[in-house]
Design brief:
about 400 residues; Aspartate Aminotransferase, domain 2; 7-stranded mixed β-sheet; 4-stranded antiparallel β-sheet; 12 helices; 17 strands; binds pyridoxal-5'-phosphate
Length: about 400
């Protein structure tokens, strides 16, 4: 049973001190911390198996290939894909979105077609489509959130017969709201569009089954789900990936190369040009094993308990405005807020004096913040390794922030 053990002890960094205080890490939506199990798996790989995967018939190269391909199978199972041909390793979620944009969209969109996205997209899933729209003369259409930060189903009517691409986040990195992606995918398919889901904020917090969802593409980054930085995943339906052109050219992605012509490797290798970040890939495999040990049941229960507690404590403070749903329906463990009269960068640096690490700024979602007329805000994001006591330190020190800046705490 997962909750018989204190998983927090698996994260050595949580014993670090910052400014003489024990660190309180509330920025897991930016990047999560890595447990010992992940770090040890990388060391083990480097001690026993490091070679260049797919590039040799000597033992270490073959061990590296085996380690690499084992992780692909783990990822396949983890997200419910039908085949390992549908699992492409990338550098991060951003690169996975760009792969689809350049390889699929650029070759399939015509002037007058529509790309429909939400106003809540991270720049990775917004700027990319904005630029593809410019290059193809397609129209970029936004679906807007309501004042509570949820996507109303009425907005889905913007997905029409002219729509060729729909790109939508599974969970907003600012609002914390979980979007109705099943409905988005259904509507997109009814209109004949391909649907890409940005799962960067979702995969570490809830089970995802891409086959059940019927998503055409689903992307995420390893570093937000307890692996090292430098690995991301593009899931794509085999029949779509098969028809797509390579994104990057070079070693590994080829079959035969002649002076004038090249034939390309089969899936998934066609999309993995050059030497991959194998340590990161190995760490992703270990992170999946770790998540399976902890269980999503435990993660969900713990993160929802922390989020509900943080929302209730923050609501005690009259100078705090929450950006995003204030209730617990369809939301994850991300809470953005404004501290009245005080710039988020001041909030963040004063809290850092108390060892508390939160994020400040536009959170790579400038159009969303402009739409909400907020422009910049603070964000605390939680993982199952956080505690209610840590939330108390955050909330208690927000009044210190007000005092430091010359305002009353009430
Ligand atoms: C919702 C969302 N999408 C995409 C990304 C981009 O992830 P990466 O920088 O790892 O490519 C992020 C990162 O914060 C995110 O929160």
């Amino acid at each position: 049973m997962s909750n018989l053990r204190n998983f927090r002890e698996d994260f050595p960094i949580l014993n670090e001190e910052v400014n003489g205080r024990k660190i309180i890490y509330f920025d897991s939506a930016a990047t999560s911390q890595r447990p010992n199990q992940v770090l040890e798996a990388v060391l083990k790989y480097d001690h026993e198996a490091n070679g260049n995967p797919h590039r040799g018939s000597h033992t270490l190269s073959m061990r590296a290939t085996e380690a690499f391909e084992q992780v692909r199978e783990k990822v396949r199972k983890f997200i419910g894909a039908k085949s390992t041909k549908e699992i492409i390793f990338t550098k991060n979620a951003t690169e996975a979105i760009n792969l689809v944009a350049y390889s699929y969209a650029l070759n399939n969109l015509l002037p007058g077609d529509k790309i429909v996205i939400t106003i809540a997209e991270h720049h990775a899933n917004l700027v990319t489509w904005q630029q593809i729209a410019k290059k193809t003369k397609a129209e970029l259409v936004f679906m807007y959130v309501d004042p509570s930060g949820r996507l109303p189903l009425g907005e889905l009517h913007k997905i029409d017969e002219k729509t060729k691409i729909v790109a939508c986040t599974h969970m907003s990195n600012v609002l914390g709201s979980i979007f109705p992606i099943e409905k988005v995918i259904e509507r997109g398919h009814q209109m004949g569009a391909k649907v890409l889901i940005d799962g960067a904020q979702a995969v570490a917090h809830m089970p995802v089954d891409v086959s059940e969802l019927d998503a055409d593409f689903y992307v995420f980054s390893g570093h937000k789900m307890y692996s090292l930085m430098g690995v991301g995943v593009l899931y794509g339906k085999e029949e779509i990936l098969d028809k797509m052109e390579p994104f990057l050219y070079g070693g590994d992605m080829i079959e035969y190369v002649y002076e004038e012509e090249t034939s390309f490797n089969e899936l998934p290798f066609k999309f993995e040009a050059g030497t991959q970040g194998i340590e990161s890939v190995v760490s992703l495999g270990a992170a999946i094993d770790y998540l399976e040990e902890v269980t999503f049941e435990y993660i969900h229960e713990r993160e929802m308990e922390l989020t509900a507690y943080a929302l209730s404590r923050l609501k005690e403070l009259p100078y705090i405005r929450i950006i995003g749903p204030e209730d617990m329906n369809d939301r994850g463990a991300v809470i953005s807020f404004v501290v009245e009269d005080i710039h988020p960068h001041d909030v963040s640096s004063i809290l850092d004096n108390y060892g508390v690490g939160i994020r400040a700024g536009h959170h790579c979602a400038q159009p969303l913040l402009r739409y909400l007329e907020v422009f910049t805000c603070s964000r605390a994001s939680f993982a199952f390794y956080n505690t209610k006591e840590e939330i108390d330190v955050l909330v208690d020190n927000l009044s210190e922030v007000r005092r430091w800046m010359g305002y009353g705490s009430r």
